[in-house]
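Reviewers of the previous submission asked for a worked example of the structure-prediction workflow described in the proposal, so we include one complete record here. The input consisted solely of the amino acid sequence. No template or homolog information was supplied to the procedure at any stage.
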Amino acid sequence: MSDQLTNHPTTILALGSYFKGAAFLQQCKALGCTVYLLTKEKYKDADWPRESIDEMFWMPETHKQPDLTYAVSYMMRTRKIDRIVPLDDYDVEVAANLREHLRIPGMGETTVRHFRDKLAMRVQARDEGVNVPDFAPVLNYDDLRAFMERVPAPWVLKPRSEAASFGIKKLNDAEELWRALDELGDRQSYFVLEKFVPGNVFHVDSVIWEDEVVFAIASGYARPPLSVVTSGDVFRSRVLPYDSAAAVALREFNKKVMKALRMKRGVTHAEFIQGDADGEFYFLETAARVGGANLAEMIEAASGINLWREWASVEVANARKQTYQLPPVKHAYAGILVCLARQEWPDLSAYNDPEIVWKLKKEHHAGLIAQSQDNARVLELLNQYGERFAQDFLAFMPQLDKPND
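From that input alone, the workflow returned the following structure tokens.
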């Protein structure tokens, strides 16, 4: 259905509780949409692509209910909204809640649980035959005792709805678990207990259109993200050789996961681990959004696919009842390094190899992306730069249980 037939341009409301997703907003505007952005007051002066935003709104808190529903409902008295899109993981649930209340198409609250609630995604995946590490809900204490008898320590205690590695604790015995639960008090049901699986961690980033994974790229972390944030190190990831056994297996596994979790359309970032003990891949978690830590820039350097832009194209095509077409994909290689930096504005000028295609511009952070047709060259640079970053920039700050907003 064209915009002419609906008598108004396709209208997108983007929820941005953090400053991100500029390419999404730009692509929506390039496709002829009316673009609204609702963000937190603290980000109203951030470097948003204002030429691509028709109207911008802000609130002290974008997750507080019923205030958010009141605000968006008030907007709709004089504005039509065709789609609501969350730019950050913490916006995913409130976007679903708004869609349900306002009867706007898109992922509803039940399916969103599969992409935000670590217990819900594990139960759904396990019930659909997906390989997941053994786990137990933090609900019935007898069940927890049975889990600890069945599964040798260590275990990990994970918040069910936090993003990245926030709030995850590694536990070595039952006493540590009971102490942690005492500290949590009434909040303990918002956690899940899981077997700790040592191994290499990978991620698959996808574009999905009408139940089909139309684009997927497999990448591997140099060290598990949890290890990086708890012990301090340079974060590194790189695209895997496309025809390698690991990449092929991960892309197929990712398809199975997305089908199990009922992902209809959009973009996803999913994480998997290959167990050291058995060599098997296990599904860890997924999110219905673009991956963080500038992984989208790394993926674009390797494939030419900008996940933010494709997400916008998917949403607009669906709203207009059109068919989405993935652009041509290239098969180069890329890798990324990012770390907290001691310096306010780190000087990256000494990192001047021709393969460097992107440098991070963010206070107290150092980061870059290397791209090459040669996978070995990317790995070589990541290893060299990892050591240099540790000497030149690396600062370590223990991770908080929740992100510092």
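The chain has three domains: 3-106, 134-195, 199-392. We consider this example representative of the routine output the project will generate in years two and three.
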